[in-house]
Design goal:
By secondary structure, the chain is of the alpha+beta class. Helix 1 links the parallel strand 1 and strand 2. The strands form two sheets. Strands 2-1-5-6 form a four-stranded mixed sheet. It contains nine helices and six strands, in the order E-H-E-E-H-H-E-H-H-H-H-H-E-E-H. The radius of gyration is 17 Å and the shape is globular. It has one domain: 3-Layer(aba) Sandwich (Glutaredoxin), CATH 3.40.30.
Length: 216
Amino acid sequence: MHHLKIDIVSDVSCPWCIIGYRGLQLALEQLADNIQAEIEWHPFELNPQMPAEGQEIVEHITEKYGISVEQSEQNRETIKQRGLSVGYEFGLRGGGRIYNTFDAHRLLDWAKSHNKQTELKLALFDLYFKQGGNPSDHQQLLGTVTQVGLPVDEAQAILASDEYQQPVRAAQQHYQQMGISSVPAFIINSKYLLSGGQPPAAFVKALQDIAEKEEA
């Protein structure tokens, strides 16, 4: 049995991050007989300067990437289909908003100590992509915390303070200095980098190759 440590750098409002994670998950299910993975999530903010009220999504995408509304629609359709191919159904977000995700990352850092980081991350993806929720809204964050069985009073105290701000900023800087400028980024055993929302077959091949190299 090969044991791999997989560090995932991602944002909760990044559609390719959930597509990529689902691809990884399906690959690990296929490889369960000879590869076991320990997964840890690390913060990346797509829009660190985003104000509290957020920004309408099409306006944001066309401004940020300099593409047309039609291209933005095409991209959304591609994302929807790729999501379905790995069993993830994005909600009917014909519109929606982009939000600041810093507080969500603080709670994800805290969730590690309760061994519920992946559960919280997946619930936050669902909050944003399936329910059209706002991951910067404290009440919605606390609702998500409750849903995955984490202590809501602890989470509330964190959100009301500046706890976990420093480790989240430090982690963001660390991965930026490593040259990670887009997400998702999957770092295997601290030395192999897989980027983007790859399909399961690509993960299967990469993980098998890495496991063999590591054994050699």
